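call fold target=Adenosine kinase
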Amino acid sequence: MSRDIDVLVLGGAGVDTIVYVPRLPLPYADSYMIDSGIRTRAGQTGDFVAVGLAALGLRTHHLDLLGDDPEGDLVRALHRDHGIGLTTVPQPAGTRRAVNLVGPDGRRLSLYDTSRTRDDDRLPEDTVRALAARARHVHVCITQPCAQALPLLREAGVTVSTDLHDWDGENPYHEPFAHDADVVFLSAAGLGDPEPAMRRIAARGRARIVVATAGAEGAHLLADGELTGIPAVAPPAPVVDSNGAGDAFAAAFLHGLLHGEPPARCARQGAIAGAHACTVPSTRTAAIGRAELLARAAGAQSAPPVP
């Protein structure tokens, strides 16, 4: 079978309601007037990664559970509008949704509706196998029920990446993802010094590359046993929202990796895409294009890694 999918994305489809608030944490009050409006749009972590990959010219397909509801219709429309293949599995509990409170500095607080997942949710094994056989690479989101698909991906012999997001280094839920992926992304926000957790991931699992993103401080790259600091990139416009920055980083990193770039260069491209994402309001779903990414990366070639 031909590999007609560059990246298969598993999980992470859903809808967010965006509320711009005057500050975070939000002090208690009986009510707040939201002049900027309250908007609902498709786009959670898997959607953002898929949109980012497709914007960079990679043939992308997304598999997840979706409800037969207005939120599911928004997700389907997003993929249709961006030319992304989508295979859906019926979810009687409904499509995932969340509320994101976004502060003036772009930080966010997310409230996830966990009633829209069930412990016995599953992605059909035959569907996972068939799509994995067509894919060059699979990016697995940590949403339920993607952990159950990891052994099937190993059987398929396809490379795997995942994003642990704000893992604290201890929560056992994340361990199957951390230990069964070739490339592991995570946020340094909850780790203090991220190096011990990064090295544990590499030692206990299959990861040959571990990347901890650190926002305005750049990122930490562990590859071939060597830890390298990746400088932050100045955003091309004012920062309005950090939502989706990590997903943009992952998409651009994978774009570089699938084009044969060394890990440090992939990480620099990730930093460029993440900085771009911070300039896009949460009410929109947009991603940096390939030409712009490569042009900015060429301009940043002279910036050396931080030892």
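return ok
Residues 97 and 135 are 28 Å apart (CA to CA). The chain has one domain: 5-25+36-299.
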